[in-house]
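Is pantoate placement plausible here? Inputs below.
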Amino acid sequence: MEIIKDIARLRERIREVKKKGLSIGFVPTMGYLHEGHLSLMKTAKKENDFMAISIFVNPLQFGAGEDFEEYPRDLARDEMLARSTGCDLIFSPSVKEMYPTGYGTFVEVKKLTEGLCGASRPGHFLGVTTVVTKLFNLLRPDRVYFGQKDAQQAFVLKKMVNDLNMDLEFIVLPTFREDDGLAMSSRNKYLTPEQRKEAAVLYKSLKQARKLAVEGERNVEVIKKVISDIISEAGHAQIEYIEIVDTQNLRSLHMLKGECLIALAVKFGQTRLIDNIILEV
Ligand code: PAF
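Reply from A.M.:
I modeled the complex. Tokens:
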């Protein structure tokens, strides 16, 4: 496994891989790898001849006052974990390598980025789509792998790939969860033991929402109220949003219909967690 920090060497390596006719599976990450990342990486390894990841905490997708500085970083630990999955290449550039002085090009997906996390984190998805475009151009993958936990990110990037005719297969894999249902995230590390215990209410509330829908409830306000009541059982939880949207356009629904995304963002102290489920009714 090679760790590459500069773009010139990366291009050289990718050219060699392509010349041999090997398929490339790519998992973009911000590091501090957890089981969720590792499951994406193992699938990418199985489905491709060559598996690469990027580890880059992308400043462009963090707003003012967000956790860019504090975001956990541990390349030595990530390297060991990546090796265990059979990873062939880690691309881990500096901020200067990705955004040299004078950098001025951005990729923006409209509409799908307006609601949910886009409403509370203005500019976030512009940062994600820009860095992911750069990474796709650099790694030239045949298949890319993302987690369902970041549902809006996956919808937005899929739209970008489609709209910009990017020649790759976009694969979204289910959310990886802890035993109590908490979605795996590098940010779980910030939680105090008490907040960590309480954070299990997120998935508990989503499971209850699914149960109500299966039993025939279609009224979105009723389902949102049940979710909110369950989350409010946790003393430290501050709800940022609970939304039920159509997966076609991420617009809010009044009644459940077709494929729906139930998504939420909740803060425990300073730690903002997101989770979601998709329902078909
Ligand atoms: O999901 C993430 O970790 C990041 O948003 C991504 C896709 C690596 C872009 O920085």
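Short version: The domain at 186-274 is CATH 3.30.1300.10 (Pantoate--beta-alanine Ligase; Chain: A,domain 2).
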